Amino acid sequence: MLRSPILVVDDNSMILHLIEVLLRDAGYDVETATNGREALDAISRCRPALVLMDIQLPDANGLELTRMLKRREARNSPRIVAVTAYALREDRERAFAAGCDGFIAKPIDTRTFVERVASFLPEPA
Question: What's the distance, CA 9 to chain centroid?
């Protein structure tokens, strides 16, 4: 079953691969990016319904990238969920203030991850 494309942005290759495998096994179309520039290119190219955004990237701050995407894409902005090891209450608050639509703390729970991700996807039209 084809589902909405999901873009996973993370500079850690092991985490990126784990998330990609979990989502592909669940039937999702997955694109990946390892830095801010790749993320922007992928968003323009594949128009994902959801972006799973690491906060600490080598060339960009995931929260700044989120703010920029929310401004630039205003009405057509994909939903963005912070997926980060920064899991304090203040980190969550900063993510939501930047425009994130959700927050998932690392390490991810592989038993519930796909279900959590699905809860952030927009309803099919």
Answer: 6
User: Which pTM value belongs to this model?
Assistant: 0.93
Spatial separation of the C-alpha atoms in residues 100 and 83, rounded to whole Å: 10
Distance, CA of 77 to CA of 66 (rounded, Å):
10
Ordered by where they begin, the domains of the chain are 6-111 (3.40.50.2300)
Arithmetic mean of pLDDT, 107-120: 96
Q: In this structure, are strands 6-9 and 79-84 parallel, antiparallel, or unpaired?
A: unpaired
DSSP-based three-state secondary structure for 49: coil
Length of the chain: 125
Coil vs helix vs strand at 52: strand
Q: Partners of 81 in the beta sheet?
A: 52, 102
